[in-house]
What does this fold into?
Amino acid sequence: MAIVPPASEIPDLSSPATGVPSTLAAGDVIFAPLVQVLVVYLDEPSIERIAQAYAFAAQAHEGQTRVSGEPYITHPVAVAGILADLRMDEKTIIAALLHDVIEDTPTGHEYILAEYGAEVAHLVEGVSKLDQIRFKSKAEQQAANFRKMMMAMVEDVRVILIKLADRLHNMRTLGVMRPDKRRRIARETLEIYTPIANRLGLNSLRHELEALGFQAMYPTRYCVLEQALRKARGNRREVMRTIEDAFNARLEEEGMQAEVQTREKRLYSIYRKMVQKHLSFEDVFDVFAVRIVTDTVDNVYRLLGLAHNLYKPLPGRFKDYIAIPKANGYQSLHTLLFGPHGILLEVQIRTREMHQFAESGIAAHWLYKTNGDATGATQARAREWLRELLDIQRQAGNPQEFLESVKGDLFPDEVYVFTPMGEIMELPRRSTPIDFAYAVHTDVGNSCVACKIDRQFAPLSNVLSNGQTIEIITAPGSAPSPNWLNFAVTAKARTHIRAFLKGLHEDEAMQLGARLLDKALETHQLSLADIDSERLTLCVQDQYQTTMNDLLREIGLGNRMATLVALCLTAKTGEVAGSEQPAAGMNNASLILRGSEGLVVSFAKCCHPIPGDPIIGFVSTGRGVVVHRRQCGNAVELASRPENLMSVEWANDVTGNYQAEIMLNAKNLRGGLARMAGAIAETGADIDNVSFDDRDQNVTVITFLLRVSGRLQLAQIIRRLKREQGVLKVWRT
It folds into this structure.
């Protein structure tokens, strides 16, 4: 139980005996640097209250040290210092100083509430809660922590700001950790924390987190790239000075006031560009750039003309993020110019206020909140995204699903399209009309049947491009297709599609459960229709379910065995269910597969059963029935649990197409793959995937994942491929 320290033990700030000096004297070597930042923007009473919080935190953490051996109090002070650099308010700074006292000291939440108020107590508790729950696996822990961070951010975004500052200081002091732990923390930082900082517009934090994460994750690559950049800097320093002088001279000629800054692209940004576009360092042209900061939006556009007059622009590389801000509220003009000696030069032009927002993002709300609604656009966009998180949270079934959904929104590469009424919609890169439909409204997405792109009918899977006009065609009674998940990109679209399919999945599970129970009852010469309602009610209660439909759904999902439920239904009054259980394993009644079972019957990826194959079913919790080929190695292993096995057979009139995998050895001949694909197409089959394994320079092993109607069509494909020039051997895996 947390302990609330008595008031007599809390140090008096004005008493020299405490060792904590007056705030403005700031003689404490740990606290003094923070005071120097605070006095720039906070008044004296606020700083005194922060000093009192520091005095209490120092006492609470007394005797505790970090892994580096430093006094533990240096960590919360450093976190507070990072937030002070962002000009955060008094309560956030106090919460940062106290953010570890609930978790790492005997201090209770009640004391924080009584001494510092509900707002600070809420922030401290919010940060503490993010680290308290333990999970079965690292993946589950990461996903659940991510969801908790998102939800804490919705309640008060300052919770996540403190958490980001906490992570930044931990990254700064990561060198004392073991290499494996450094890499794990660095990966989590790059995958989770930097995207959140980017989404909130906290570029100063994001850039440092990326640099530290990159250095810890890939130390060798970091060093090599840093040396290459240092060499390039030496070669181009004179060129950049020439460019800066040229801009300043032109500004003086035009009588315009602006600040010209030359900068170099950050190492992690260069590395990501090299990886994503498969470039060498020499092929990354925009390593150096110019930023021009001025007073007014009018001057920003005038400076764009000045820049284009000074150096020729590269066509198609101008972006106006002022007229259409990024999702995180970022505003600036970007243009790419042909500089001296043919080098490509990126130029960013913005106002001072835009520059402050670019560095501080949503934190600028607390910096400027006394000056009216200066951050309206940034705040509105951030809050709108946070509100959407709540909706996604309600629809997501588990933390991993939530993480997967939101990650798409954390890595946006925006595309801007228009509604038929001319309104601009912002979507992530590679979005499709489905994403657009759900962005308009959930009901529009759920009832979407077709679309028009620039007034021409187009597939719903088309990837949208900038400037296109999208019209969604809906129809009453239509419903989302599971196939949409293959190309939907936004979290909102994927979450609502999954939510609909989850309801559909439960209905299908109930229908399958009824069929499975009927099959199990056949061994007792009964059917479900023969069981009276009283017996059904008793069985439902015995199985701890609310209704018969719930019990059928549990059977269909594999959470209850149909044979045991059948035994419960057929047991005589007073007989203990299970006392005369039949031999474990399959009964004589087989489940007939017709191809219309839906999501609760799935086909194993290890052996890809198709109509005509001898098959066996395995009842899997939460997945329904998983079908394997009888000769599959996994099926043999599963046979060691006969209570979960089920007899399944193909119907004579089975419908649909099923995945099958074949491999072949082929000589490396020009056009060989095209001929093989053509041969497969002649048989009427589809190719889902192709992969290669070069056995040597003359022979390649090719794996085709096909979609076929059954064994007959697959045999035709194999015979046809064997006749192709260069094909040495064909077999089914």
Summary: The longest strand covers residues 658-667. Residues 527-649 form one domain. The two ends are 60 Å apart (CA to CA). The first helix runs from residue 32 to 38.
